[in-house]
Amino acid sequence: MRAKITYCVLAAVLVVYFVLVGSRGVLLIEQGTVLTVAFGVAVLILPFIGLWFLWHTTQFARKAGRLARELEAEGGLPVDELKRTPGGRIDRDSADEVFDRRRAETERAPDDWRAWFRLAVAYHDARDTPRARKAMQRAIALHEGKPVRV
To answer: InterPro entries given for it (predicted)?
Structure first.
């Protein structure tokens, strides 16, 4: 719950920032010189890129959360069997061991979104965020019945 609140607060701060930046872009355009109009247009583009990124990130998080709830209802969420250091961090060897099992499971069932979801969790536990995101995107696509690129 804390993560959701933090995300919502940061998203709201970003939206306020985008509005402020957008207003500066409009002010630059109103100046009317070639240079200020060019800068104003460039400044206006940035909030739109930011809003697009925020929208896609939010949709990704919502879809991943939906998959997690569905998998939990089925009793298929991965069990936290990872060893931890005294400081609470995940032990790297333990994460690698679980990752190997999840990868083998995914190789046996490459069209199962559940296996890809569990693989994404294993990637995340192994601190490989880019691959975790790709695996989760694949799980979402498989769940939605969309074509998956190889």
So the answer is: TPR-like_helical_dom_sf (IPR011990)
